[in-house]
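Cross-posting from the modeling subforum.

Setting up a comparison between two proteins and wanted a second pair of eyes on the formatting. Protein 1 (sequence, then structure tokens):
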Amino acid sequence: MKKIILLMATTFIAVTFGCKEEKDQMNGNTVMTEAEEVPVQTRSYDPVKADTIEVNSVSMTTAQWKQKLGPKEYHILREAGTEPAFQNEYYDNKKEGIYFCGGCGLPLYSSNTKFDSGTGWPSFYAPIDPKLVKRKMDRRYGMERVEVLCAQCDSHLGHIFPYEGVPTEERHCLNSLALDFKQMDI
């Protein structure tokens, strides 16, 4: 019982203070809008070449999305939900591979740009290529944040926050339920 209470308290503190820190950073004069991103260079071989990825338009009805996705995935991808910190599949994943959109399968992020932000969600400093994601201002819940969406199906992936210490000075804070990971050598 003590472990459950400790886990719940830790999650609450991480979510509360993680969001507060991001909110405080976003309320300053340096609100991030369309920040320039850098292309990701993988080591010797990248099974996903950004210049060969085609971004098409995926348009489905609400009923089609609900049939394709489970209730939790639908809530994250189509209703811009957020999963709990430290209780999701990929926050601590250290395997090499590619993270694909959970809605349409577009390759989005490489494990080469994944890092441990300590926030409890998978964090990346850049997508495979900037054309693969869209940015949109999100002013819900009294905060001003930058939402990150799949460029192909407009599925909600998470948010982008300023973050010092990584090459782009950005943290793409994503939901595991918005991603499908495929382990591969890169």
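Protein 2 (same layout):
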Amino acid sequence: MDKSIIVKNVTKKYKLFNKTSERILDLISPKSYGEDFYALRNVNFEAVKGDVVGFVGINGSGKSTLSNIIAGIVPETSGSVKLNGQASLIAVSSGLKGELSGRDNIELKCLMLGFTKKEIKEMEPHIIEFAELEHFIDQPVKSYSSGMKSRLGFSISVTIDPDILIIDEALSVGDKAFAEKSLQKMKEFKEQGKTMIFVSHSIGQMKDFCEKILWLEYGTVREYGSVDEVLPNYENFLKKFKKMSKEEKNEYRESVLKRNENLVNA
């Protein structure tokens, strides 16, 4: 089967600085300043055309970082990402300019994706109608609620008809009716055989929509497989994790990070 996403040994490292002077010194001095923080370490997974892959993991596990890297918004520090087709990321306010109106954002985003002004004029009414923003489309996006931003971003992304769709918590804001309409549109894409990445805290949506699950734990892949294989394990983990005290959660996080570092250095 045709592979649409190949993620190979992807690592994303950030530098954490306590003060601005450390950041400047790190740039100009041969000595390293600041603390290395690994959002992702040696992540590997593949998806074939038509796969719907859910990303799960507690906060801070790297789901959004990996989504942004696959979408080409954030560069990986090392490793590689190969896509077979055009990817589009749907996240709250992703790629939207607050000073511009909703209509101007539609034109800007579509121009950046290579559409002509004529094509954009043809798509614009469909985007506005799907987003349900007729009365607000000429207002600056900075005045929009998070739900309105999400609706606009979702509408642009589904209208441009990408090969690979990445939905990062975009259905967690706004009203239930729009979320249901969006899920229906995603199901249409699924029937068309498009590849989709779905990031959500809703286990119910994962069960209803996804076929495979990538479970990330503090930047590394803990499990990757079918929904029936991985999701029950993740649900059992969540039950135990939620019962932990704050101290126990911190201890668990440190033990996982230490284990990950030992695996990389082995």
